[in-house]
């Protein structure tokens, strides 16, 4: 398994974890709403856990990377994994 900080593109699967401490409640809500939005053409599944927001897709073409970049998060609060 490769672990990368930053956006992963053109992979067969991709996932991320974001620390909720780095997010406002508004950002958490936007992330969770993204799953059902028209912007989510890659089929991202997002869910909230006690300390993290987790996301997973089996086909990553890049739509969520730009969306999350707009949050201007510290680099150490988010981790991407490529499958």
Explained architecture:
With 83 residues, the protein is α+β, with helices and mostly antiparallel strands. The chain has a single domain (2-82), classed as Alpha-Beta Plaits. Helices cover 20% and strands 29% of the residues. It is built from 2 helices and 5 strands; from the N terminus they run E-E-H-E-E-H-E. The chain has helices at residues 25-34, 63-69, and strands at residues 2-4, 14-19, 45-48, 52-57, 78-82. It has a 5-stranded antiparallel β-sheet with strand order 1-5-2-4-3, with helices on one face. Strand 3 (45-48) and strand 4 (52-57) form a beta hairpin. The longest helix is centred in the middle third of the chain and has 10 residues, at 25-34. The chain starts with a strand and ends with a strand.
CATH architecture: 2-Layer Sandwich
Report the uncertain regions: none
What CATH calls the topology is Alpha-Beta Plaits
What is the distance, rounded to the nearest whole angstrom, between the alpha carbons of the first and last residues?
6 Å
**Largest sheet at a glance?**
5 strands, antiparallel
Mean pLDDT: 80
Helix fraction bin: 10-25%
Beta content: 25-35%
What radius of gyration results from the CA coordinates? 12 Å
DSSP summary: helix tally: 2
Oligomer status: single chain
